[in-house]
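Usage example:
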Amino acid sequence: MADFFGQFNYWVVVLLMMAGLYIVIASANLVKKLIGLSVFQASVFILYITFGKVSGGAPPILSPELEVYSNPLPHVLILTAIVVGVATTAVGLALIVRIHEAYGSTDEDEIDQMDDADDYPARK
Amino acid sequence: MDLSAQLPALIVIAPLLAAPLCVLVGNPRLAWGVALLTSVFCFAAALGLLQMLQHVDVLSYSMGGWAPPLGIELRIDALGALLLLLLGGSSVVVTLFALRSVEHEVALERQALFYTALMLVLAGLIGITVTGDIFNIFVFLEISSLSTYALISLGRDRRALFASFRYLVMGTIGATFILIGIGFMYVMTGTLNLQDLAERLPAVADTRAIRAAFAFLTIGLGLKAAMFPLHIWLPNAYAYSPSVVSAFLASTATKVAIYVLVRVLLSLYGAHFSLGELPFDKLLLVLGSVGIVAGSLVAIFQSNVKRMLAYSSIAQVGYILLAIGLASQPGFTAALLHLFNHAIIKGSLFLALGVVSFRFTGAKLADMAGLGKTMPWTMAAFVVGGLSLIGVPATAGFISKWYLVIALIDASLWPLAILVLFGSLLAVVYIGRVIEVAYYRQPARDLPRKQIPITMVGSLWLLTLGNVYFGLNTEFSLGLVSLAVSSLMGVGV
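Running the assembly step on the lines above writes:
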């Protein structure tokens, strides 16, 4: 049980990761897909931030009284990844707006049907 | 300070700076000029770096003067130089072609932004190639991917938008997988520098975290490289993006992903671990073979010629992965040769279709009836590219398939050698369909003659002649590839 709570963060990461991926795969709504993608990415952010924690370590600000610090590098890395994540979400949302303008729908199944109708007009 | 010593950094910085410059000038023609100049500079810089590699095995550049492994290192060896030449060369040819093609296919107010995105893709891909830091690879990968999504969505067909969104979702999952893999490796080794990682990995190789990292990295890169079951994003993305983008992506984007895969497999984990201890070599053999057959078979039934070429690309990626799966020196040589040659082949084929779409809207097979008579030069280039794709002697495609078959026989994998030849036969069928329609059918209606701009025909024939040149004279491509393979094997095994 102590093991479970000792690795609490990692359990959260796994849960979020699976939930995010599931939403991406299972949801037909494009906006929901993008939300799932963001949740999935956020889980990785938490994973990195958890990596950086050193038990008993202080925040990495140099001070004469302290000897053990947390590792700041994963935090810096993930700052970059967060920026990338924001950019991805922005591009994705912009695409959804354009898709909505062009198809009048944000539902994957409906869009697939419209594409099929374009590809094989005879079947209609 | 000598400028040539700064080349490894400049080759990334130039396109990165050119991108905002294209936005600032605003005028499409000026933006095109900026993009062309930058591409020419990158190509020249790649040649310069290759020249410098004559004297040393590896060029190492410490970014900002911070010494590796703590600082970020740019590292270029023969394999990197090969990729840089490919990137610079395709960029020059494709940008030359883009002038009129983009005017025709992209709305006026988006043309300058088109070149911005193109330069960002170039910067990202070059960055991946030169960097010696694994986190940098992730960042550059995302720079190129995000701009790629924007470029694909500029296609005229509304399906381009949905293709782009689908690629965004799958590409982001792939990139995030790579990020997880990097994180695991960092935790286990405490370093991000590729050289340093390769030295520290063997000590912890037998842990679950490193094996998991390997799985995450290979799946992520497999997605980006369109490895067979992970290829779903590719056909529509290539089919509906502007012609210039299809040509550029087909000859560079998947190639760079394969380059990173090769780096991870051979330089980082070492062939012994990745292709021996873990059964990834067998997986590559199986997935490569299935990719060849499935990609080629689906290509035969496409009515959109661009989509047909996209499926053919999946088959060609299959050949490269199959060759890597052999885990032998002849196998790696065949893989890298095909990587180089296929870039030229698919570039020329997609550019030929670009000329066709300049005349019609899209590249439907039915539209191409009688084009052999009305557009003789374009179709002649398509035929040369097609023959090269099939692997007819005196073309680039023949050389790489020859080496692949020899490597397969070397490993006494006869059934797979026959499968490769069967794949070529399937290529005869799908290229043959286009040739049949173009040469043996009458044009459906009288079309007004439309002058094809010299920049388009010129750049198309530049690549077509490259197809023939690298088929007849293999000294350059083979020499560089063997150099790259020996440096890879030296580090890895």
